[in-house]
Write a structure and sequence with these properties.
Length: 427
């Protein structure tokens, strides 16, 4: 089918988006240390997206143009000192014994990179569990056994689906807190300690999330996604308490996507087990397409536990690379949103009155989710006003997300039927 003139123009603008360098800038007193982002070459002249740290702790990002012949470190440090205040290092808190679950499927190369970063964590006591989801080869098992056998436990889950894999990991872990991340991330050395320490300080904390930044911005798809917010949730720590709902979140807790994402989340293990873990008919690898992480957040909050967003808990995420990837991602986000809402109401019918009371504003929220994303800003991502004008969000992707939202409940019900069929087949 021929594309419309508008669609062709959107793709033309998309293909014209140039690469952006990724870097880290650590300010400490009068010193400034500039490093390339994970897997990136040394910083030179041109456009640079930099994570700014004070004494190792993330405080913000900046997008700057380094003139040819200029010292990138000096240019970026001057900008950063003018824009960001020094971070409070906080008091020492001993993090609890933690488990890290990484679900994967046929991506051994990416998994090895992620595991290397996880094994380098500055945390006193933790374990790593890899869940091989519906494998078709022995590649993942052989990687773990050959290179990581002494530090990583291997679990095979034959039923496909991210939530099913996460539940298999949840059943296997021993830690007081269980953290989940993806096989396409590079974890900052302080990630696990920063993500899990709040659980030691707050007995009523049921789940936590952290900061996700782009590992690379080399393709138009990666730059476009990050220029409209990416996965970042800002640099201000925040606690969400169901006993004291946030006044700026009238749809709380049903706007779970604002809390964080599955690539960087943790739960108090016994709490997550008590609510039944993740709904196995949600998540990537099922007809529901996503929503497993959001389901987990809402189920724990519905039990009265708090959620803590900690921007100091950082992972670098390898964003998808192509236009087709963005199409898949937009549709999947929409489907996952309404699929998880359906799952919550199916599994916890008592939440239906609260959901219906919020429904009018929920519809408005749904429209805002799929509007041109330039109006949102980018709390912690690349500066929204500049990039929204330079790289407008394609309406085609917004339409795909709306279509996904219509499909989500159907996809969830399809996934439930498929799951029942697979259980009967296994029996």
């Amino acid at each position: 089918m021929a594309r419309s003139a508008r669609a062709q123009e959107e793709i033309r603008r998309f293909l014209a988006i140039g690469a952006v360098q990724v870097a880290e800038l650590d300010l400490d007193g009068e010193e400034a240390v500039l490093r390339p982002g994970p897997g990136s070459p040394p910083v030179t002249h041109g456009e640079v997206f930099a994570l700014v740290r004070w004494g190792g702790r993330p405080v913000g990002t900046l997008l700057a143009q380094v003139p040819e012949g200029a010292d990138p470190r000096a240019v970026l440090a001057a900008r950063a000192r003018a824009e960001y205040a020094e971070a409070d290092p906080g008091g020492p808190v001993e993090p609890p014994y933690a488990s890290v679950v990484v679900a994967t499927r046929e991506r051994a190369g990416q998994l090895a990179r992620a595991l290397d970063s996880l094994l380098a964590q500055d945390h006193p006591r933790f374990e790593i569990v890899v869940v091989d989801n519906a494998p078709v080869t022995r590649e993942t098992r052989e990687l773990v056994e050959r290179k990581y056998a002494e530090r990583v436990r291997y679990v095979c889950e034959p039923v496909p689906g991210l939530a099913v894999a996460h539940n298999a990991g949840l059943a296997a872990v021993r830690g007081e807190v269980v953290a989940f991340t993806d096989d396409d991330v590079v974890a900052d050395p302080r990630w696990l300690a920063e993500l899990t320490a709040p659980f030691a300080a707050d007995a009523a904390l049921g789940c936590g999330t952290g900061l996700i930044l782009p590992a690379r911005l080399t393709t138009p798809a990666q730059v476009l996604l990050e220029s409209h917010g990416g996965f970042a949730k800002g640099f201000t720590p925040r606690t969400y308490d169901p006993a004291d709902p946030p006044v700026d979140e009238p749809l709380f807790p049903f706007t779970a996507g604002r809390f964080g994402s599955g690539a960087n989340m943790a739960f108090r293990t016994e709490v997550l087990r008590r609510v039944g873990g993740f709904d196995p008919a949600t998540g990537a690898g099922t007809a529901a397409r996503g929503g497993d992480d959001l389901y987990g957040f809402v189920r724990v909050l519905a039990e009265g536990y708090r959620l803590r967003y900690t921007p100091y808990a950082l992972v670098w995420h390898h964003h998808r690379e192509t236009w087709r990837d963005l199409e898949t991602q937009a549709y999947g986000y929409g489907a996952g949103l309404t699929a998880y809402l359906t799952a919550v109401l199916v599994n916890r019918p008592a939440l239906l009155p609260a959901f219906l009371a919020r429904l009018p504003r929920g519809l408005a929220h749904a429209r805002s989710l799929t509007a041109v994303r330039a109006t949102e800003g980018t709390a912690g991502g690349m500066p929204g006003d500049h990039d929204a004008r330079t790289h407008p969000w394609p309406r085609h992707l917004s339409r795909l997300q709306r279509r996904g939202m219509v499909y989500g409940p159907v996809g969830y019900l399809k996934a439930r039927r498929a799951l029942r069929a697979s259980v009967r087949g296994a029996g």
